[in-house]
Amino acid sequence: MIEILDATELPRAREAGALVAGILQELRGRCAVGTNLLEIDRWTREMITAAGGESCYVDYAPSFGRGPFGHYICTSVNDAVLHGLPHDYALADGDLLSLDLAVSLRGVVADSAVSFVVGAAASPADAALITATERALSAGIAAARPGARIGDLSAAIGAVLAGAGYRVNTDFGGHGVGSTMHQDPHVPNAGRPGRGYTLRPGLLLALEPWVMADTAELVTDADGWTLRSATGCRTAHSEHTIAITPEGAEILTLPARELVP
User: Fold this and answer.
1) Is 111 assigned a ligand-binding role in the annotation?
2) Pairwise CA distance, residues 148 & 97, whole Å
3) What is the mean pLDDT of residues 211-237?
4) Any long-range contacts for 37-40 (C-beta under 8 Å, 24+ apart)?
5) Domains contained in the chain, number
6) pLDDT tens sequence across 70-104
7) Is 261 part of a structural domain of the chain?
8) In which domain, by residue range, is 145 found?
9) Is residue 166 part of a domain?
10) Does 1 fall in a domain?
11) Is 186 annotated as a binding residue?
12) Could you write out the three-class secondary structure of 80-142?
C-alpha cells in the first residue's frame, strides 16, 4: 500500500516528525557510560506517552521477527545494526550505539535513526562509518523530488556507501510511511536511476542507509530480532522521514537545533 497525504495531513506529519526528532535528541544527550538499554527503552516510553503518541514497535510482529517486539525503541550496539532488542546491558565507554524510533502521532507515523559513540571520542573507523551513512542519507534526500524515481534515490545512497568502501546489503532499506510504519514503496540502499515508483507530492518516505565495516552479510540473534554483522564488525545506521512536496523533499525528523532559520 502507498499512501499519499493531502495538504491537511502534512501538518500532522510535521508534528510526528518533530516528536521523533525531539525524543532521539533527548536520548542522545542522556546516553552515557553505564546507561542501561532498558533505561533507554523506559525513557522512550515515558516521552511517547507524555506526548500522546503511540509506539510503532510494542505490538510489531512482522514475518522476519519473533514478535511482538515488545519494546519502544531499537537499541543496536557495536556489531548490531538493525532491530536491536533492548535488554539488560550497560553501555561501555566507546560503544557505538544506534537508536531507531518510530512513533504514530494523531494518525501519522514518523521514523528516524541516529548512530553515535558513547563516552570516548569516535575512532577514525567509527567516525567514517557514521559519516558515510549520514552523507548517503543526505544524497538520497537531495535526489528526492516530484517526478524522481525510487531508483534515483537508491542509486544516490548506494553511490556514497560504495564510494566510501562499504558493501551494501539490500535486504532491508527505506520504505514508505503514513498511517502505518512500513509501507510501499521499498527504497533499497543501492539501485539504478530511472527505475521504480515515481515520487509525487504527499508521499512520505523513511530513508535509512546502514552499513557494516567489512561485510554485507547479516546474522540474527537468538532473540529473533537483533540483526548483527556476520563478522562481528562495527556498524552504523542513519534515517530521516521526508515528505515529498512540490518544491522537493522536506525533512520531518530534523532535530530542532539543526533546523535552518
Assistant:
1) yes
2) 33
3) 97
4) 37/75, 37/77, 37/84, 37/86, 37/87, 37/88, 37/89, 37/91, 38/86, 38/87, 38/88, 40/73, 40/75, 40/86, 40/99
5) 1
6) 999 999 999 999 999 999 999 999 999 999 999 99
7) no
8) 10-252
9) yes
10) no
11) no
12) EEECCCCCCCECCCCCEEEEEEEEEECCEEEEEEEEEECCCCCCHHHHHHHHHHHHHHHHHHH
**175 labelled binding-site residue:** yes
240 annotated to bind ligand: no
Tell me, what CATH number does 18's domain have? 3.90.230.10
Instruction: Kindly report, residue by residue over 167-193, the tens digit of the pLDDT.
Output: 999 999 999 999 999 999 999 999 999
pTM over 0.70: yes
Ligand-binding site membership of 134 (annotated): no
Q: Distance (Å, rounded) from C-alpha 91 to C-alpha 240?
A: 25
26 annotated as belonging to a binding site for a ligand: no
130 alpha-carbon distance from chain centroid:
13
Whether residue 120 lies inside any domain: the answer is: yes
221 is in an annotated binding site: no
CB count within 10 Å of CB 93 equals: 11
d(CA 70, CA 256): 29
